[in-house]
Design a protein that fits this description.
Layout lengths: L2 H39 L6 H17 L2 H22 L5 H20 L1
Length: 114
């Protein structure tokens, strides 16, 4: 397998990770919104402390839904880098090829350990 095939596989894996993080973020977002709505519309005859705790829990889950966004952005950037490397093909110097090899090794190590 030459670099182009490795790079294609890495790009595919990055796209799968983007989908995974998007689903996770969407799920957390819906759960957070659901908890907040539940806290707003639930019966007011219960204690105010419980309403506050449920509202804060919803806000916490809602804010955590934004964490996967960081991963999504970074993976989009990686895809851009890998596409640029792939498109350069044989037009790179030996020093650049060594850097590309190192980058591919790091990417493959991450794939294997994930």
């Amino acid at each position: 397998m030459h670099h182009g095939e490795y790079i294609e596989q890495i790009i595919l894996n990055q796209r799968k990770a983007i989908i995974y993080h998007s689903v996770l973020g969407g799920f957390l977002l819906l759960v957070g919104i659901g908890i907040i709505i539940f806290a707003i519309f639930k019966d007011t005859h219960n204690s105010d402390a419980i309403n506050t705790i449920v509202g804060l829990a919803g806000a916490y889950v809602f804010s955590n839904s934004l964490l996967p966004l960081k991963e999504i952005i970074s993976r989009h950037e990686r895809i851009g880098v890998f596409k640029a490397i792939k498109n350069q093909g044989d037009e790179v110097s030996e020093k650049e090829k060594e850097k590309i090899d190192q980058l591919l090794e790091k990417a493959l190590e991450k794939i294997v350990t994930e």
